[in-house]
Design a protein that fits this description.
The complex is a heterodimer of chains A (111) and B (114).
Chain A (H helix, E strand, L loop, with lengths): L3 E4 L2 E5 L4 E7 L6 E6 L5 E7 L2 E5 L2 E6 L4 E6 L8 E8 L8 E3 L3 E6 L1
Parallel strand pairs in A: 2-11
Antiparallel strand pairs in A: 1-3, 3-8, 4-5, 4-9, 6-7, 7-8, 9-10, 9-11
Chain B lengths: L3 E4 L2 E4 L5 E7 L5 E7 L6 E8 L2 E4 L6 E3 L9 E3 L8 E8 L9 E2 L3 E5 L1
Parallel strand pairs in B: 2-11
Antiparallel strand pairs in B: 1-3, 3-8, 4-5, 4-9, 5-6, 7-8, 9-10, 9-11
Classes of the chains: A mainly beta (111), B mainly beta (114).
Chain lengths: 111, 114
């Protein structure tokens, strides 16, 4: 069964800083998910990627399939980026099995 | 607007009572999921349904039950057999039951049992 680890658990940044959140997994997968959980609890999907890099606004997600590692970057961070960021991967490799979720990285951006 | 609704947002129950959490989607998705979130832990899968009238146990199904009589609806019942029911419950759906499809989440229900 896949194991998904995130680091760091908590992250505090000043507004404008470049943020990196890391995710590693143990079994090769078809796609990795990045999600954002707002303080009220709602979760939105940010990215689903199987190779290379994806960009949406100030958010960039990268994945290295060989190293079983993905990163989420936030450029020019803003207090509204404060949230919990979660990565998730298929439970049994490839696209098999339901998603296994990391414990999340709690990001706080100070003005 | 298409999306997933969960109700209520907050729910309080006495120990020993069954309680049913609602989840409705108008995205025309085949697959639906129930997750439980506890502080410091990742989301854990309770039950999932790939199609109407079918559902499967997830990793922590004990003490829970579900039904899927309509494509739009996937209610979760927390029974009195669930030893530690206080948690945040999230419902999600995806167009198909594979892990490489995007999942859409509802706003969640926070259940407190005393």
């Amino acid at each position: 069964k896949n194991e998904v680890e995130q680091s760091p658990q908590n992250l505090t940044a000043q507004e404008g800083e470049f943020i990196t959140i890391n995710c590693s997994y143990s079994v090769g997968i078809s796609a990795l998910h990045w999600l954002q959980q707002h303080p009220g609890g709602g979760i939105v999907s940010l990215f689903m990627l199987s190779s290379g890099k994806k960009k949406h606004g100030r958010l960039i997600a990268t994945i290295n399939i060989q190293e079983k590692h993905s990163s989420l970057h936030i450029t020019a961070s803003h207090p509204r980026d404060s949230a919990v960021y979660i990565c998730a991967a298929p439970g049994y490799g490839g696209s098999q099995g339901n998603l296994i979720f990391g414990k999340g990285t709690k990001l706080s951006v100070k003005p | 607007d298409g999306g997933i609704t969960q109700s209520p947002k907050y729910l309080f129950r006495k120990e020993g009572q069954n309680v049913t959490l609602s989840c409705e989607q108008n995205l025309n998705h085949d697959a639906m999921y129930w997750y439980r979130q506890d502080p410091g832990q990742g989301l854990r899968l309770i039950y999932y349904s790939q199609i109407v009238n079918d559902f499967q146990k997830g990793d922590i199904a004990e003490g829970y039950s579900v039904s899927r009589e309509k494509k739009e609806s996937f209610p979760l019942t927390v029974t009195s057999a669930q030893k530690n029911p206080t948690a945040f419950y999230l419902c999600a759906s995806s167009i198909a039951p594979l892990a490489d499809y995007e999942q859409y989440f509802g706003p969640g229900t926070r259940l407190t049992v005393t």
